Amino acid sequence: MNLNDYLGQEPHVFLAPMAGITDAPFRELVLDFGATATVSEMISSEALVRSNAKTYSRLRGQSKDTLKIVQLLGANPKIMAASAVINEELGVDVIDINMGCPARKIVSNNSGAALMINEDLALKIAEAVIKAVKIPVTLKMRLGWDSKSINFLSFAKKFEDIGIQMLTIHCRTRSQMYREQADWSLIRELRNVIKIPYLCNGDIKSEKDAILALKESQAHGVMVGRAALGKPWLLNQIMKFLNKNEIIPSPPLDKQFQIIMAHFQAVLDLYGELRGIKIFRKHFCWYSSKLSGSSNFRKVINQSEDLSFIKNYVKDFYEKRFEAIL
């Protein structure tokens, strides 16, 4: 499959891979509202090849008829290639290589953004994965390691030459982590350097941000990450505005409650009751963050492991606020 032919010409909106967040229930929910595609949690190639059960559980894909994209992390070309083959055999449509994660634990193992200062290894990894599978391979990276080593342009051209079919650029350096405003304009020159599509990532929190990001970056689409936490409908709002100039309002509070409980149940079904409750605490916090009384709501939710109590407490919390609005 040629990814460029599959995507077509419209501006695209992808959900970014986020560790501990973009599991199957969250990806399915985002796709229910509407998005070009979602990307799995970052998967350790080492753990996958060792048949780590926890890692395999992250490969549970969404059931929707859309691109199934898995992001792989690692610093060993052979192991990255082997893990890509495992994913291809499991029915994944696209392999994405992580060269952008800035976390100290990741870069200390020469993975993620550390590959931005090891061009030889970065190219060997990309080439090994591309040769190992028949499905498209994409790649996510940063502008560079720091302000003195911004090298995404030369990397992009070399990645295109060996067969990478799409790039996502997080518009910060590794040293910036998630601080400072992402500079979308810095990747504009990619239009003159590569022919493959590229996505703009970083600080895209609204329809207005997406329009400005595309204008400044000249990218073929955007990738939305943390802004979607507690707002799984955001990507659809951005897509409709970019492609049809439609303004889609956020769901009313009573509908949000239904969305939250359906999401919660999907997590419980996947992970089991106790683990599901613990995993979903962060989602309850994100969903309720701008509502009155959310601080106490989070405190109560984070201290309870009683499923019946949690369901009733959440229902009561949202009903009171919905009635107050009416």
Topology of this protein?
Elements: H1 3-7, E1 12-15, H2 24-33, E2 37-44, H3 45-49, H4 53-57, E3 68-73, H5 77-89, E4 94-99, H6 104-107, H7 119-132, E5 137-142, H8 152-162, E6 166-170, E7 198-201, H9 207-217, E8 221-224, H10 234-244, H11 253-271, H12 273-288, H13 294-303, H14 307-325
Parallel strand pairs: 1-2, 1-8, 2-3, 3-4, 4-5, 5-6, 6-7, 7-8
Helix pairs in contact: 5-7, 7-8, 9-10, 11-12, 11-14, 12-13
Short description:
This protein is of the alpha/beta class and 326 residues long. It is 47% helix and 13% strand.
What does this structure look like?
The chain is an alpha/beta fold and 326 residues long. It has two domains: 3-244, Alpha-Beta Barrel (TIM Barrel), CATH 3.20.20; 253-325, Putative flavin oxidoreducatase, domain 2 (Non-ribosomal Peptide Synthetase Peptidyl Carrier Protein, Chain A, Orthogonal Bundle). The chain is 47% helix and 13% strand. It contains 14 helices and eight strands. An eight-stranded parallel β-barrel has the order 1-2-3-4-5-6-7-8, surrounded by six helices. β5 (137-142), α8 (152-162) and β6 (166-170) form a beta-alpha-beta unit. α7 packs parallel to α8 and α11 packs antiparallel against α12. It is globular, with a radius of gyration of 20 Å. The chain starts with a helix and ends with a helix. The mean pLDDT is 93.
